[in-house]
Amino acid sequence: MNPLLDALRAALGDTHLLTPERHDLSGWERDWRQRARGRALAVARPGSTAEVAAVVKACAAHGVAVVPQGGNTGLVVGSVPDDTGTQLLLSLSRLNAVRAIDGDNLTMTVEAGCVLQAVQEAAAQAGYLFPLSLAAEGSCTIGGNLATNAGGTQVLRYGNARELCLGLEVVTAQGDIWNGLSGLRKDNTGYDLRDLLIGSEGTLGVITAATLKLYPQPAAKLTAWAAVPTMEAAVALLGLAQQRLAAGLTGFEVMGQFALSLVDKHYPQLRVPLWRESPYCVLLENSDFESEVHARALFEALLETALEQGTVTDAVVAENLTQAKGLWHIRESIPLAQVDEGLNIKHDISVPVSRIPAFCAETDALLAREIPGVRLVNFGHLGDGNLHYNVQAPAGGDAAAFLREQEERVNTLVFDQVARFGGSISAEHGVGSLKRDKLPHYKDPTALRLMRAIKTALDPQGLMNPGRVL
Amino acid sequence: MNPLLDALRAALGDTHLLTPERHDLSGWERDWRQRARGRALAVARPGSTAEVAAVVKACAAHGVAVVPQGGNTGLVVGSVPDDTGTQLLLSLSRLNAVRAIDGDNLTMTVEAGCVLQAVQEAAAQAGYLFPLSLAAEGSCTIGGNLATNAGGTQVLRYGNARELCLGLEVVTAQGDIWNGLSGLRKDNTGYDLRDLLIGSEGTLGVITAATLKLYPQPAAKLTAWAAVPTMEAAVALLGLAQQRLAAGLTGFEVMGQFALSLVDKHYPQLRVPLWRESPYCVLLENSDFESEVHARALFEALLETALEQGTVTDAVVAENLTQAKGLWHIRESIPLAQVDEGLNIKHDISVPVSRIPAFCAETDALLAREIPGVRLVNFGHLGDGNLHYNVQAPAGGDAAAFLREQEERVNTLVFDQVARFGGSISAEHGVGSLKRDKLPHYKDPTALRLMRAIKTALDPQGLMNPGRVL
Q1: For the complex shown, is ipTM > 0.85?
Q2: How many CA atoms lie within 13 A of B307 on its CB side?
């Protein structure tokens, strides 16, 4: 018998400690994009913060590494064990209670294992908006969202997961519980441990619960789709929309022509508008706290000005919620259309918004020159300077061979450009295992040294999600 | 000769190293509220980030403590040297360049020594809003604002200094330069060093520059003043205003009757409205991106509903900018009126907004019971749950004796109540030396242990602003 497993069984009960001898652990061991398959020593499924603490404490005592996992929907291989069979997979999925909703304080306190969509729905039922929204919301958990500082489609207005969190409950690497749950908007009593833990990808401790910001529900949401003649025009339109709609501008997505052509090809029933006429289309969302009539008047005045200024060449405003959902559905179908088209290389980069046009012009040209036939699937959250600047293998060739031979080179070309433009090689997905080896090349060396010092200080045994980030 | 001073003189030139033998250093040695007067070994006034690094490196080599100082307007004795004459005062005031304004990216990059008002003005000249705003804005520096995570009157909409900063340039305790200046809205490449440094009060490193968020300028700003019958009504009015004005609600201040009576008494020319009829008044600010007409219509509809619901008993809306400034001036005159009234005990607390009414009811009664004659000057940023719950000595008595005898007891009574209500004993002013000894009593012990581990990891010699925070 393994003494750690005995201790865990005693702490959790037999039902909630799953071992490879008796259970199929593949759902926990395989990452979302099927890029990695590890082997876990066991899967622990604690049902309370105290049990999480007991698990981590036992692992610390036995020198066993802990890999925390939420919905396991991450894109950078950050939540599955390695292939040694020595790491404990700590699933947070049973910690899924909504502990409290405080309307007057505009906060809710939820446990880490709550699925994001359940958090959104609990907020909506109480009459409030929890604005974090991303493609995996039906499966990802709020703990994972916080551990990776998830982004999504509403960041322009509401910020990343970090900006939506007021307080955390955390189990440290030593198995102590830090109760930092707080509904406070202001608290200057010491170092910002909350934001340090957020985005640390489970390498400094385990997030077990969080107090989140709520917002009033808008009275109306309108969506528009505009064809823009250039990326410069898209940036100018963004500035105009920010001036006119201010905080009402809750979404601003850009989509390149080739990206939309893939949606048109693989999902013709979605009827992608305006894509044939223009190198880029933009999706704008206006959340209005007065009325739909007011929202529509603002939107139409905005688009009229943009048409006059030439930053928009044509536009449609969704007439109803169904049409609006249809437009968002097109945007969200780009990754699926990419899969249908075949293997591709994904990026998640950011540069300052002002530099996006030059970045795209230069990098498009560079890749076309260096890798003949390359096809760029460029789309993303322009309002945040965040592009999924993806690369599809040349048409008709052997896509698998292309990836094998060119992925590293494509990454280097793109990342070097990102660095030249003062950007980030991981805007919203995190580092995980996938980009860990890139950090020493692209991150400021002093920042890396500070990060390593913090890691060593808070997790001296190096047992928290090892091999991630650093 | 002192070898450190020789090294500093070589690095900075004779003009920018001030020693007590040759200069009057009292302006740097005395704190804003005149509560402390230290003695500096010398005052170093570097003119560039490289010079800051040279100063810190030299101090590290000689084992000499460094006390960074911006505008020296802090309220918790965090930026003056102790009285040993052994600490180097590092003034950032010569680093005062606005390095860049990037309109399309809505960012500006400024050096730490820029006075806050100069930052606001540079933004305004370029057509943008930098929203951080607080009483000391004519003297405080952005470096100090970030080091203390300053709050102020616009936090409700725009957040504290932390939320307004996208990137930092920092000199570490070892004298290395971390270039984390970034205009990126999204960057998930590792631990959040930016937010760790922000609010660390110079104990982990020296902020030398920052990239800040800009916002479009609103088309109109309107201010209203409302009498509310109870604190419960004030909280209900806040909720209504948040629903109706959403992000347009940029200010929501509450002022107790006694606080306003002091303004009326000492500054009768300010003509405080509505204060005689009501236990509390509220100041609301609406920033509108359409027009003044639109702002006024929204505001009037809001106040009409509030009057119907009984959360407001009477209200005035400023007719013009002069009237609006007059109303804000009343709010900002409360601390001055307190000084005119005599010695008092200041607090800077926060509790969840939803718990403010119960907190005030219980704590008002407790203090009245425990300390007969006590007079509460209760006012603050209700939208952030942040009250300056100040205590004025009983009328007619010896105020100095009252403070001597009762200050500790009053603090304990108030802070224990804050703790009971899940609040913070320092909402926006920080810890400094003043509240350092309170932290072990009121802060979660695990959080304190994590903070100490981080301090030791990043500043193993303990030379960065020692005796502050921890």
Answers
A1: yes
A2: 12
